[in-house]
Amino acid sequence: MPLQQGETFFQGWDFFTSPDPTHGLVDYIDEASGRRDGILEINSAGNAIMRVETTPTVPGNRKSIRITTQATFNGGLVIMDAVHMPHGCGTWPAFWTNVKWDATGIAVYFFPRDSIPADITANTPLPETWGAAQARWPAASCDPFRFFSDHHAIFDTTLCGDWAGGVWNAAGIPGQEQSCAQRTGFATCDAFIRARGSAFQEAYWEVRYVQIYEER
Q1: d(C-alpha 33, C-alpha 56), whole Å
Q2: pTM value?
Q3: Where does residue 78 fall: left (phi above 0), alpha (psi -120 to 50 degrees), or beta otherwise?
Q4: 119 phi and psi angles, rounded to 5 deg
Q5: Could you tell me if 184 and 192 are in contact, meaning their C-beta atoms sit under 8 angstroms apart?
Q6: pLDDT in tens, 86-123
Q7: Order of strands, edge to edge, in the sheet holding 13-15?
Q8: What are the phi and psi torsion angles at 15 (to 5°)?
Q9: How far apart are alpha carbons 52 and 34 in whole angstroms?
Q10: Rounded distance, CA 45 to CA 48, Å?
Q11: Would you give the DSSP letter of residue 36?
């Protein structure tokens, strides 16, 4: 898939505007609406910004962005360079299919900005030189090409929903040593989402590029 970067980043993506399949309190909006409402842009650094609506209070859902690549791929390496990822109580961001996927299985790698392998920067990625993956599902007992096909890459940020809403009262999980109910003083995720728009100032993606390499 061509490099998605700079002013043309949003070309080649479809904007999902149906109800959230994970039951989050978001209304996914189209590109024109996102730009008009200030939650979608290319910033001065040439990076793609996808935000969540921060109106102080809302009676229902907050506006958000979900995009899907128009192109599909079967196997390969997906690299996403993010300057900032959404975070905060009630926030559930996702970038799907961020896995090396080939005949050996599926693997996920993460590199801090100061240790990105030079081969990635040079657009000649060599995963076999990257060391241990953060997560790996080997193909020894499961052929990826039997169960995974015609994939899209997807960005989205939802609020509450099946996962973030479900762990609202949970404590002791990574990144949430104290429960969000304790941290915010709100008994439910839904009530917090609707009443505290300022809490979502950090609920945004800033993405330098997405590159998908397919095996030949």
Answers
A1: 19
A2: 0.88
A3: beta
A4: -70, -30
A5: yes
A6: 999 999 999 987 576 778 888 999 999 999 999 999 99
A7: 13-15, 66-69, 154-159, 91-96
A8: -95, 120
A9: 10
A10: 9
A11: H
